[in-house]
Design brief:
This protein has a two-stranded antiparallel ribbon. The chain has 297 residues and is mainly α. The chain has a single domain, classed as Orthogonal Bundle (ABC transporter involved in vitamin B12 uptake, BtuC), CATH 1.10.3470.
């Protein structure tokens, strides 16, 4: 592994990982707030990409992005209010299965509307390359990574200083205490679903700008799950660091194995995130920064 290959992998891995981190942030917040593992998160990523592309056919790109995020947030509110709220108090396994079914419903609806072909955004950014530490990267890739990094900072400020963000953090840390202090858990759960849907949609738009949108993009939701498991499902900083780590591991380790070990038979790069899930669950099931739960008998 040459220094040039390693540097190239680090730069591009951090760029991709910043988008994974943004998607994983929504994943982690929803789990931390509601203890629900949302297996439909990948479909929400995919939905954001397809809806934004469809809207760019009738309105300018910035307006399409704003409308997409608004629709994604409304969808999250609707999912919590119509589907998840009536199941409040049911076993967590039942709720997780519901999210799995929801993901298939969203995917099937998208197949019916847009088919299975790859779709691309119109040229909203100049073509060409930018150089980061001497490493070439597509302009759209650099823009997507920079946007994801800025949004991570914005979301951090929101959670730290806004009333809604403080309420969500309080409920996430200790639901019973927050409820006795007047925090509405049902409202927090609705906010969490809306935020997770919007975060997934942003990730779908940024990855769609870079790579195009097709149904393979739905697997990014599972890569965000890998990031969450690596960092700790109940740790928001862990989700961000986990996303960056998955991006670097995928690009450096997966890219090296694909090009040097299995002699051009590409594919390991696409599965290495799931190898990480397996290894972390075997060695440290609560992740690098997650809360370790000890049961005494």
């Amino acid at each position: 592994m040459t220094a040039e290959f390693l540097l190239n992998g680090l730069v591009n891995g951090i760029a991709v990982g910043s988008i994974y981190a943004l998607i994983a942030l929504g994943f982690a917040l929803l789990y931390k707030s509601t203890k629900i593992l949302n297996l439909a998160h990948g479909e929400l990523v995919l939905l954001g990409g397809y809806v934004a592309i469809a809207l760019t056919q009738v309105v300018p790109f910035p307006i399409a992005v704003v409308l997409t995020l608004g629709l994604a947030a409304l969808l999250g509110f609707a999912i919590e209010r119509v589907i998840m709220r009536p199941l409040f108090g049911q076993p967590l396994l039942s709720l997780i299965i519901v999210t799995l079914a929801l993901g298939y419903i969203i995917r099937g609806t998208m197949v019916g509307i847009w088919g299975g072909s790859t779709r691309t955004f119109p040229a909203v950014l100049p073509a060409g390359l930018v150089y980061i530490a001497g490493i070439p990267m597509q302009t759209v890739g650099a823009f997507s990574a920079a946007t994801a990094a800025v949004l991570l900072v914005v979301f951090w400020l929101f959670f730290r200083y806004s009333l809604a963000g403080i309420a969500m953090r309080a409920a996430a840390n200790e639901q019973l205490t927050a409820s006795t202090l007047g925090v509405s858990l049902r409202r927090v759960f609705a906010y969490a679903w809306a935020f997770a849907s919007a975060a997934g949609a942003i990730g779908g738009i940024l990855l769609g700008l870079w790579l195009g949108v097709n149904f393979a993009l739905g697997a990014v939701g599972l890569k965000a799950l890998a990031a969450g498991i690596l960092g700790g499902l109940d740790s928001i900083p862990g989700a961000i660091l986990g996303g960056l780590a998955i991006g670097v591991i995928e690009t450096v380790v997966g890219g090296y194995i694909d090009t040097n070990v299995i002699y051009g038979l590409y594919g390991f790069k696409d599965i290495i995130a799931f190898v990480v899930i397996l290894l972390v669950l075997l060695v440290r099931p609560y992740g690098l920064f997650g809360t370790e739960h000890i049961e005494r008998l």
